[in-house]
């Protein structure tokens, strides 16, 4: 049996649809199945969706999330370990140009792609992270190799790419990652002289109905924040949790800027209790150590997964905007966000499956 | 209540037989930096300014592994990293991969205050340093003869070497230990401070590991791992970077205070106990002026003082025992 409950500031129904999207909405969803020994999976494609996002693009995103869930589900049914499922699903998200990771990554101010990713395996809390990648086709797999084949936890360019060559991972020209859409977005961002959130119309435009132009990042005014980072969290039948997150970062970002995605404890965290992947305003996620805090309130306060997600979204983000997905070792799955939307999907062994945006 | 300050110059397998020529300069440096911090707190400087000031002094002092005196990568270069965090606002800044910036901690502060970001690395961080006009120097400024020798020894032994440790092979007990290295960092510096109004701040700075792979990032610039501060406490941690990252050591001290209601000393001891022995040390102060200095290594270069007149410079004798 699957129990579903959800909570949001705004109007919504119990089937996971926010019927009226309002600015500053906070939404927590929680799905439980069966308890110990059940697998569960969640994926995301970023929090902070433009309320005016065209329906075709929403549908396209939902199709991709569904496909990724299906890939994860069939791997879980074949008893593939959680860490492998996370890598497999994030690779798929990176390879598809739709979201902001791998191919389709946002562009730096120089018009290049600089990707980052991290992965963490709950049972031994092993982790790997990479930053500043320009030629590695699947950053999540390099993060996995850093975890398993290097004495370190975190490598960045140029060391990371040398390591990639030694490991023989697939490498491509930087052009491979650059899509026409993103070239256009960068041009808009430069015209607006801002760091651009993927689907947000620059605030100098006229159609930014629900776009908040007074956002602050790290204390400074900025009109935009983090785009469609991707992530996946999985608990397998053995109760092993894992999490992975991958991103191209901010549109028009300063070269060398590192966000929350490669930071263990911020964008990604997994331990014996749960696996968490976060997305949104990177600076708010870093200073709130958001992913670790979901696990920390479970570990130190004794909260369950739902309560933990609710707690961190309510209490840890201050003014920041972000979302997260999480699974517990008991086969529970939860997602929460305080943005207008988050591209997300989740499924449990009990047959529950949901893909949503608002 | 009252101000308090603690600083460290790294934790690790520091042999009790450490020769005086390597022990004394560090003790002198710790004492000097402690005095600088005490004077600043007495002059009512904000803890954020105090930790930056003290870490700058530690960076400028060639006997620690940060700024001048940073250890060398496998390519013989320096790649420095640092972070800083203010407790009340939880504002923070971090930098990695610096090769010319004299005071990495001050660039971290500028990232915090002058950019919309928290963390800049490598070319981007160096370009930002040029924009901000911070003091830079040639590699020769940072590279000391001692560190050229350390790198040579490490390369001869074909391993990543810990500063003060004899090059011994790690025993291959589990899968993780079969990776050929001794992935520790010793000589990292850090400072935490609280003023009489309960304002807290933390900063950490390092050159990383001897013979490290270029591009390796440790725990020092990671908010929540090497550095953390909130309204309850400020923490600067040091040790084997990879263990600190997966243990989110600095954040966890604050988290167990916040979520379990432990005191600073209890929280610090609890968190250090969770990290495998021989891996970690930290200094911390609470908003009420408590100090904790704990480590599960042989020793930690450290110094601390509080408004009531307590003051200490020490290397061994874990307060955990």
TrEMBL record, chain A:
InterPro entries: Ntn_hydrolases_N, Peptidase_T2
Residue(s) at site: Cleavage: 228-229
Catalytic activity: Cleavage of a beta-linked Asp residue from the N-terminus of a polypeptide
Binding site for substrate: 257-260, 279-282
Transmembrane segments: none
One GO term (biological process): proteolysis
EC identifiers of the protein: 3.4.19.5
Principal EC category: hydrolase
UniProt KW keywords: Autocatalytic cleavage, Hydrolase, Protease
Active-site residues per Swiss-Prot or TrEMBL entry: 229 (nucleophile)
Origin: domain of life: Eukaryota
GO MF: asparaginase activity; beta-aspartyl-peptidase activity
Keyword Repeat in annotation: no
Pfam family of the protein (one): Asparaginase_2
Claim: Metal-binding is one of the keywords in the record: no
CDD domains: Asparaginase_2
Subunit structure: Heterotetramer of two alpha and two beta chains arranged as a dimer of alpha/beta heterodimers.
Protein name as catalogued: beta-aspartyl-peptidase
Source organism per UniProt: Gossypium anomalum
Automatic annotation (TrEMBL), chain B:
Binding site for substrate: 216-219, 238-241
Reaction equation(s) it catalyzes: Cleavage of a beta-linked Asp residue from the N-terminus of a polypeptide
Organism from which the protein derives: Gossypium anomalum
Site (Cleavage): 187-188
Cited InterPro entries: Ntn_hydrolases_N, Peptidase_T2
Enzyme class: hydrolase
Protein name: beta-aspartyl-peptidase
SUPFAM superfamilies: N-terminal nucleophile aminohydrolases (Ntn hydrolases)
């Amino acid at each position: 049996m699957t129990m579903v409950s959800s909570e949001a500031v705004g109007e919504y129904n119990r089937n996971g649809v926010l019927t009226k999207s309002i600015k500053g909405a906070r939404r927590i969803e929680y799905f439980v199945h069966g308890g110990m020994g059940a697998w569960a999976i969640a994926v995301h494609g970023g929090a902070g969706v433009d309320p005016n996002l065209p329906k075709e693009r929403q549908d396209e995103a939902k199709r991709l999330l569904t496909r990724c869930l299906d890939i994860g589900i069939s791997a879980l049914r074949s008893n593939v370990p959680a860490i492998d499922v996370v890598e497999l699903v994030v690779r798929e998200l990176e390879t598809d140009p739709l979201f902001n990771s791998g191919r389709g990554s946002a562009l730096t101010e120089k018009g290049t792609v600089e990707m980052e990713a991290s992965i963490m395996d709950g049972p031994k809390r092993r982790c790997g992270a990479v930053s500043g990648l320009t030629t590695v086709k699947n950053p999540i797999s390099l993060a996995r190799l850093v975890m398993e084949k290097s004495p370190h936890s975190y490598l960045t360019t140029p060391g990371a790419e040398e390591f990639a060559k030694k490991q023989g991972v697939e490498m491509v020209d930087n052009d491979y990652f650059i899509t026409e859409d993103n070239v256009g977005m960068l041009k808009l961002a430069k015209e607006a002289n801002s760091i651009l959130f993927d689907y947000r119309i620059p605030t100098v435009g006229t159609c930014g109905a629900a776009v908040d132009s007074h956002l602050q990042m790290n204390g400074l005014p900025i009109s935009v924040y983090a785009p469609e980072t991707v992530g996946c969290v999985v608990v397998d039948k053995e109760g092993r949790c894992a999490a992975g997150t991958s991103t191209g970062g901010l549109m028009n970002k300063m070269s060398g800027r590192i966000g929350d995605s490669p930071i263990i404890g911020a964008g990604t965290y997994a331990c014996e209790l749960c696996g968490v992947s976060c997305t949104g305003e990177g600076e708010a996620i870093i200073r709130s150590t958001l992913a670790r805090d979901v696990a920390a309130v479970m570990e130190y306060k004794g909260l369950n997964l739902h309560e933990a997600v609710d707690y961190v979204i309510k209490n840890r983000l201050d003014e920041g905007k972000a979302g997260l997905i999480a699974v517990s070792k008991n086969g529970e799955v939860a997602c929460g966000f305080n943005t207008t939307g988050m591209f997300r999907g989740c499924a449990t062994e009990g047959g529950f499956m949901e893909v949503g945006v608002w | 209540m009252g101000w308090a300050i603690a600083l460290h110059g790294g934790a690790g397998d520091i042999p009790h037989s450490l020769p005086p020529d390597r022990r004394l300069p560090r003790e002198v440096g710790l004492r000097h930096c402690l005095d600088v911090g005490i004077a600043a707190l007495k002059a009512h400087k904000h803890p954020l300014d105090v930790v930056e000031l003290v870490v700058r002094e530690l960076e400028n002092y060639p006997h620690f592994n940060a700024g001048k005196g940073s250890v060398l990568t496998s390519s013989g270069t320096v790649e420095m990293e640092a972070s800083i965090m203010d407790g009340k606002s939880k504002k923070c800044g971090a930098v990695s991969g610096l090769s010319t910036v004299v005071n990495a901690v001050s660039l971290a502060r500028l990232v915090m205050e002058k950019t919309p970001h928290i963390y800049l690395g490598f070319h981007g961080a160096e370009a930002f340093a040029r924009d901000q006009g911070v003091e830079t120097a040639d590699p020769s400024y940072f590279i000391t003869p001692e560190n050229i020798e350390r790198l040579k020894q490490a390369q001869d032994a074909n391993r990543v070497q810990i500063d003060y440790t004899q090059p011994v092979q790690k025993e291959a007990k589990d899968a993780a230990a079969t990776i050929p290295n001794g992935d520790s960092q010793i000589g990292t510096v850090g400072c935490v401070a609280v003023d009489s109004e309960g304002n807290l701040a933390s900063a950490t700075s390092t050159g990383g590991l001897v013979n490290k792979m270029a591009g390796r990032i440790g725990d020092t610039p990671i908010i929540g791992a090497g550095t953390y501060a909130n309204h309850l406490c400020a923490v600067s941690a040091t040790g084997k970077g990879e263990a600190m990252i997966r243990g989110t050591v600095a954040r966890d001290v604050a988290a167990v205070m916040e979520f379990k209601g432990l005191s600073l000393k209890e929280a610090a001891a609890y968190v250090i106990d969770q990290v495998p022995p021989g891996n970690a040390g930290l200094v911390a102060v609470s908003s009420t002026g408590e100090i904790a200095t704990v480590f599960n290594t042989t020793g930690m270069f450290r110094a601390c003082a509080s408004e009531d007149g307590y003051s200490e410079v020490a290397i061994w004798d874990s307060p955990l025992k």
